[in-house]
Specification:
This is (wild Malaysian banana) hypothetical protein. Keywords: Ubl conjugation pathway. The structure is a single chain. With 538 residues, this protein is mainly α. Among the domains are: 111 residues; 64 residues, no CATH class; 123 residues. Helices cover 58% and strands 3% of the residues. It has a 3-stranded mixed β-sheet with strand order 2-1-3. α10 packs parallel to α12 and α17 runs parallel beside α19. The chain starts with a strand and ends in a 14-residue tail after the last helix.
Length: 538
């Protein structure tokens, strides 16, 4: 056996080997020799590899097996090294009668992956992520990932007693020499910390394998949030960006119902300073927007980007709302009202911001459809606060704000406050009166319907009815009134209208209660003993 071949491995080390032995097993070496000019008889032939996976360690391990041609115990580490270098070197069985077929030896070792301990699985993954990319697309990676996903699923399904380190079933599936501790093995997130040492590319492969093997996607989304938080604390800026973009893409690929709104806002806080791609930013905003009704006020108070004068990033909130309403028909009335309540709180927070433009404020106030709010008191209060801070608005800008209020959804207290509010023009008080009249008409219709059904309701005071009728006429000549001198009259009229609304509401409630009692009593009277009911009285 001669040393007639000099091999430079990635610039790390130079090996002198037998050309015939190595070329009989390695197709790549054979090709290099054929392509090289005939070497001098006095000098060994030289070849160099610059990207051999596993480097000098893997090459030495391979040559030992080629020379000795005997089976040795294949540990997880040697399996990973040999598997990757075998593919790279285009290894064969040597074309000779041998006691050991290298490829079959590697294949046999792969069959033992289900019996590896948890710590060996994790170390193998770390080894694979450092090897040549071809290894990540081979059967080795698939088998390791399949074993990993199976163990996570099995540990999630068993009871805490079974998953105890003292359990024989637990010891059979997971070697207690692994990094799992007694403290964290009894909950479903026991494996999170073990995998944060892997790079984003490997995490992507792991997660896609988990999804394929039906691992709980709620658990996967929690792990992704944990992984990004860990990366943000330990990685460099470029690694943080890569991690954030990978995590966002993976979250976007999961079932939307399995990703929490809280977790998404955590991703947003980390990624906001990393200048992630527009595509990833859009995906993240879309995911948050679809869950907008589940957010909290603290979630929405995102600081404005550097270079802007505003306190909060209102443009981001508007984009959230756009995503939330993108498929409006799929949003329930409960979700819309939850979003409306959240936006009312947000408006109250941003209204005092002296740098917030009026058009942005109006856009926030009018972003949701009218059915998202039962009351517009909060919008009126926010506008009142905004006008208190922004005293230099033009008449046109103010009118756009006033149009954001649905005056029919203002309470009596808000209408009363509006009538005496000098920041609002008198015509808005007129509109408030109109809304009160609309409520009066609705209540009067309800009273009439109750009269028809009961036939024995207390007679209303004719003078009051006349006053209601007369009150409905006060708006007909509103345009002829000098608004600048009629504020006090409007305030007085509005208070009268409020009293009428309250009186009618009281009468309606009383009549409804009487009808309910009469209906109940009528059902308890048998047909043979039935007699006319007594006349209801007020």
């Amino acid at each position: 056996m001669t040393c007639d071949l000099e091999v430079d491995v990635n610039g790390e080390e130079i090996f002198l080997v037998d050309k015939e032995v190595l070329s009989s097993f390695c197709g790549r070496v054979r090709k290099l020799i054929d392509q090289t000019s005939i070497a001098s008889a006095t000098k060994p032939l030289k070849v160099a590899f610059t990207d051999l996976p596993g480097g000098a360690e893997a090459f030495e391990l391979m040559t030992r097996l080629c020379y000795n041609n005997v089976a040795t115990r294949m540990t997880p580490r040697t399996t990973c090294l040999l598997h990757s270098v075998a593919h790279f070197m285009e290894m064969t069985d040597g074309g000779v009668s041998s006691s050991v077929n290298l490829l079959k030896l590697i294949q046999k070792s792969l069959e033992g992956i289900p019996y590896w301990s948890w710590s060996e699985i994790v170390r193998a993954l770390r080894q694979c992520q450092d090897l040549f990319p071809v290894a990540s697309t081979s059967g080795l990676m698939d088998r390791i990932l399949e074993s990993l996903a199976g163990r996570i699923t099995a540990a999630s399904d068993v009871s805490p007693a079974v998953s105890s380190p003292e359990s024989s079933a637990f010891r059979f599936s997971f070697d207690t020499r692994s990094t799992m501790s007694t403290k964290n093995c009894n909950h479903r997130a026991w494996w999170f910390e073990d995998l944060v040492v892997l790079n984003p590319a490997m995490i992507e492969k792991i997660v896609r394998s988990m999804v394929l093997h039906k691992v709980d996607q709620v658990l996967i989304s929690r792990f992704l949030a944990h992984y990004l938080k860990s990366a943000a604390s330990n990685a460099s800026s470029s690694d943080k960006k890569e991690a954030a973009e990978t995590i966002i893409n993976l979250l976007h690929s999961l079932d939307a119902s399995c990703v929490s709104c809280k977790g998404l806002f955590g991703v947003l806080r980390i990624s906001s300073s990393l200048k992630i791609s527009k595509c990833c930013q859009s995906k993240l905003e879309s995911m948050i927007g679809n869950k907008f009704d589940q957010a909290t006020l603290d979630n929405l108070l995102v600081p404005a980007p550097s270079g802007t004068k505003s306190l909060y990033d209102v443009n981001l909130i508007l984009r959230f709302l756009k995503s939330f309403l993108r498929i409006e028909g799929r949003k329930s009335i409960t979700e819309l009202k939850q979003a409306g309540s959240l936006m009312d709180s947000y408006l109250a927070e941003v209204a005092p911001d002296s740098s917030l433009k009026p058009l942005k404020f109006v856009a926030l106030a009018t972003a949701l459809p009218d059915e998202a709010r039962d009351s517009h008191d909060a919008i009126y209060g926010a506008i009142d606060m905004y006008l208190e801070v922004h005293t230099q608005l033009s008449g046109e800008e103010k009118m756009k704000m006033f149009c954001a209020i649905n005056y029919e959804k203002l309470s009596s207290e808000s209408c009363k406050h509006l009538a005496s509010n000098r920041k609002f023009p008198s015509r808005t008080a007129i509109r408030a009166l109109i809304s009160q009249q609309s409520k009066l008409r609705s209540l009067l219709k309800e009273v009439n319907q109750l009269k028809k059904h009961s036939g024995a309701l207390p007679k209303a005071n004719p003078s009051k009815e006349n006053r209601f009728s007369d009150g409905e006429q006060i708006i007909l000549y509103a345009k002829k009134v000098d608004l600048s001198t009629e504020n006090e009259k409007l305030k007085s009229q509005l208070q009268g209208m409020q009293w009428k609304v309250m009186e009618l509401e009281r009468i309606c409630r009383k009549m409804q209660a009487q009808m309910a009692r009469a209906t109940k009593k009528n059902r308890t009277v048998s047909p043979s003993n039935a007699r006319s009911l007594p006349r209801l009285c007020s």
